[in-house]
Amino acid sequence: MSNVKHVPSNADPKKHNDYSLQLSRWFLISIGAWPQTPTSSLIERLSSIILIPMWTSMIAIITIPCILYVFLEAKGIQMKLSPLVSVFHRIMGFLNYSILLARGKDIHECIKHMEEDWRVVPKIEDYEVMMKHSKMGRYMTGICATFVQGSAFLFNLAATMKTVTFVINNVSTTTHPLSCPAYRKLVDARFSPANEIMITVQVMSSYVANSSTLCICSLAIVFAMHASGQLSMLYTWFNEIIEDNAKRNYSVQRKLASIVKHHLRVLCFITRMENIMYKACFVELAGCTLNMCLIGYYFVMNWGVLTTAKITSYSTIYISMAFNIFIFCYTGEIVAEQCKNVGRMAYMTNWYELDHKTARSFILVIVRSNNVIKITAGKIVPLSIATFGDVIKTSLAYMNALQAMSM
Q1: CA-based diameter of the chain, in Å?
Q2: Which positions ≥6 away from 342 have C-beta within 8 Å?
Q3: Are 366 and 341 within 8 A, CB to CB?
Q4: Distances (CA, A) of 180 to 42, 141, 251, 386
Q5: Phi, psi at residue 355, to the nearest 5°?
Q6: What is the average pLDDT across 371-400?
Q7: The pTM is what?
């Protein structure tokens, strides 16, 4: 078509790709999980070698003594349940961190795939579609980062500001309680400087757990938005085939072949995305369901004695977890819907104006689109908006069961 506007030749595909991934990259680098490549600098390699064992140790130093406290020291069901939100949060963070490190090669391949898509985008209309989805992904990542890190900051701030006084040998001592209490025979965190050290390590372990969850969530958003943009471009391409056919343009078969190749390329990208995400999605779905159940239980059982600071911190944590699950479910929904839409796009064009041989080729696209690649949690539960509703209902059901057990 003579009036087609092409992307300027000086457009930098790496710059556009970095725009999509910037927030994800910052947090991945901060925890040493940014994928290493043969072109990575010595500083990048050394930082990963130092950061990975350091952050892993931070989580272990807080989690192991707290688990021992729950099983060996805490008395009564409420005392045992109280630290579990913080414990589960760090266990989830550690599992997500491990998945990020184990899937570094696949993450790098997805990033390369995205960069190549930016490099080969031919027309300004397609470029604008990609930019629209890129901006949407970046905006959603920013909201996710605000919720995850902001809620953790408020929770840690509320815990750090609180003080308790206890008496030993007629001597009164004031200390800051830990949200993850430590087993006293292993670490007695009531006294200085152990108390200050454990609070510092606790905040740092919270950061790596939050960042790991945020990185998984942000990558899911960016990858899903990119795939959605690539599939949206196909609608324009289908219509171009009809227009070219009307003008007796003999490039119709070539363009149809390009559509099929591009469609399969996007499906390969979604398959790789699913292979990266399915374990992390299962961790988030199961962990957030349990934590939301426990937070709801704390609210119901301790409402009369909760301070404003605790109500605020628990509320933000609950909203943050619900938002994380919603984001995963939303990305699963949008990917599945866009895969189906390709078939609808092909059917809704004026395919009947094509010659019979070309029109029959549309059937292959429609049939392939009906076989939807779904983003799942653990290859068990397909992620969708309906799944989000099921998670909320399940967490409330578990909360009622816990409440009945403790009565």
Answers
A1: 98
A2: 231, 234, 263, 365, 369
A3: no
A4: 37, 28, 66, 34
A5: -70, 160
A6: 91
A7: 0.90
